From TrEMBL:
GO terms for molecular function: heme binding; iron ion binding; monooxygenase activity; oxidoreductase activity, acting on paired donors, with incorporation or reduction of molecular oxygen. Its cofactor is heme. This is Cytochrome P450. It comes from Candolleomyces eurysporus. GO terms for cellular component: membrane. It is found in: Membrane. Belongs to the cytochrome P450 family.
Length: 548
């Protein structure tokens, strides 16, 4: 038996449970269901094929049986823990997952190349990820695996090409100008403290709405309230962190075996005396209903050969048109289509000078090639994406027994060196995007510093020789291979359009209160020093920039 007193139950935030509001028979039934799910998970781990080779890989101690190292790896303030692991144990080592499972933690370039590119069919998204993504977003490109994923990527690739993005630039600038006008109006009254999370989220999702979905959530102005979809998206990340343990232990078996069917699962969710569960239910409902309304409107118009839909260049309209033309074998189901849905003043000044010069040459709306050709703007974006990747780690699960090679030998428990390790089928592999992007052996002794200038000269030999398998600029920020971020060019363009519009006219500085970054599912800022308030907040002082 393992010691229950050693389990860190704080990750569940049990203070929000309200058992008094639920009849005894119901909460006991719910408890029994949870225990059964946890037991199933434990038996699955215990019965999984193990390997002396993986078990022999060295790693940190201090793991509990139930949570392993996950409570240390996946908490709001895990930055220093991840950094210390990389510094103490090198590019590959063993950590413990739930129920004592051996997990390989790596950022070794050669290992990542095999996992994400060369042998990617042997390493898929783990069941825990795909099941949770399907429950949250539907059977889209983010959640499906294997042939279904390849089919969806094939259909989506053309609409995320540079050729198509060039046509989106005016739409991006239209939204960015709304945001800029809103900030200019506020700053005209003197320096104003503005929450960047609120307004940047509105702008980013409005760009997605117009160029991706062919609709509008709401103009990015003070006169228009925030759309319910945007509110839901802002709440999603924090809720996923609060519900981490049940998402790991309960969702996979329930989803895999469809326990009880949809109606019973919904009933159980409604009965669970946990506020966070109900909030997550409402967030998913809002996102799904908004997406469904847009999809139905477009499908009906397409069925009636609406000329407006036939001419629209937003991603969803193009996808639906191409899907209509596709063969039955390649065509996506309706559910699959629906499922696609720090401040440095010196750097600001230098960037502002470049942007103002570009404004003199290209005006307030440069085209795609003119925008991406601005060297310092590009350097600022690349360095930010290097040092501050939105997602710190990604998971893979071996589909077969796999011999995984390393560019740097891995240490065994007796300090012996191994150039390759046998990873048994069903094993989890945790790839650290953050550690790869800040590896001092690749990026130098200043790898933890934010220096845009590093991108204005040729890369050091160590960077090119590492052969990082990332899809973007020797970085792992957008992953690599067949499951790399399909919209990474879209997001880069979005960043550059907004910076071009704002930095040229406005100056940003830190407020009096300190801003903390939380290592949530998608890293997010807060002003709460205890990191207990998961609502993302990032107030900055915004003022009019001085004329040069």
């Amino acid at each position: 038996m393992f010691d229950l007193s050693k389990i860190d139950w704080s990750i569940l935030d049990l203070s929000t449970l309200d058992l008094a509001s639920v009849p005894e028979t119901q909460w006991k039934a719910l408890l029994a269901l949870a225990v059964a799910a946890i037991a199933w998970r434990g038996l699955r781990r215990a019965s999984a094929k193990t390997s002396n080779t993986l078990a022999n890989v060295h790693g940190p101690g201090g793991a509990s049986f139930l949570q392993g190292h996950y409570s240390l790896l996946f908490n709001n303030d895990a930055w220093s823990y991840h950094r210390s692991l990389a510094q103490q144990h090198g590019r590959a080592f063993r950590v413990k997952g739930t129920f004592g499972q051996d997990v390989l933690y790596t950022y070794d370039p050669k290992a990542m190349h095999h996992i994400l590119l060369k042998d990617q069919h042997m390493y898929e998204e783990p069941e825990v990820f795909s099941s949770n993504a399907t429950v949250t977003f539907g059977p889209g490109v983010l959640s499906v695996v294997g042939d279904r994923h390849r089919k969806q990527r094939k259909m989506l690739n053309p609409v995320f090409s540079v050729t198509h993005l060039r046509h989106m630039v005016p739409t991006f600038f239209g939204v960015a100008k709304q945001l800029g006008d809103t900030f200019m109006k506020k700053a005209s009254k003197g320096p104003q403290e503005i929450d960047m999370v609120t307004w940047m989220t509105r702008a980013a999702l409005e760009i997605v709405a117009q160029s991706g979905l062919g609709t509008s959530f709401s103009p990015v102005t003070e006169e228009h309230p925030e759309h319910s979809f945007i509110t839901a998206v802002k709440e999603l990340g924090p809720l996923m962190t609060v519900l981490l343990l049940p998402r790991l232990l309960v969702v996979p078996p329930v989803f895999k075996y469809n326990l009880g069917g949809a109606w019973l699962q919904r009933l159980v969710v409604n009965l669970v005396p946990w506020k966070a569960v109900h909030q997550m239910r409402d967030v998913i409902d809002t996102m799904h209903q908004t997406s469904l309304d847009i999809f139905e409107q477009k499908r009906n118009a397409l069925a009636q050969d609406d000329s407006d839909v036939e001419q629209r260049q937003d991603i969803m309209s193009i996808l639906m048109r191409e899907n209509k033309k596709a063969s039955l074998e390649d065509r996506l189901s309706d559910a699959e289509v629906l499922g696609q849905m720090s401040i440095h003043q010196d750097v600001q000044s230098k960037l502002r000078a470049e942007l103002r010069e570009a404004y003199e040459n290209f005006g307030d709306e440069p085209d795609h090639d003119q925008l991406v050709g601005l060297p310092y703007l590009d350097a600022v974006c690349r360095e930010t994406l290097r040092l501050f990747p939105p997602v710190a780690t990604i998971l893979r699960e071996t589909q077969v027994d796999a011999m995984l090679p390393f560019s740097t030998p891995v240490k065994g428990s007796k300090n012996e060196e191994m150039s390759e390790v046998l990873i048994p089928r069903g094993s989890a592999i945790l790839i650290s995007i953050l550690a790869s992007n800040t590896d001092p052996e690749i990026w130098g002794s200043d790898s933890y510093e934010w220096k845009p200038e590093r991108w204005l000269s040729p890369h050091p030999k160590a960077v090119t020789d590492a052969h990082i398998p990332g899809v973007y600029s020797n970085l792992m920020t957008f992953s690599g291979g067949g499951r790399s971020c399909i919209g990474f060019k879209f997001s880069q363009l979005e960043m550059k359009v907004i910076l071009y519009t704002l930095i040229r006219q406005l100056q940003f500085s830190l407020p009096e209160q300190k801003i903390y970054w939380q290592m949530t599912v998608i890293s997010s800022p807060t002003i709460d020093p205890t990191l207990s308030d998961l609502r993302p907040q990032m107030p900055l002082l915004v003022s009019l920039a001085e004329e040069s």
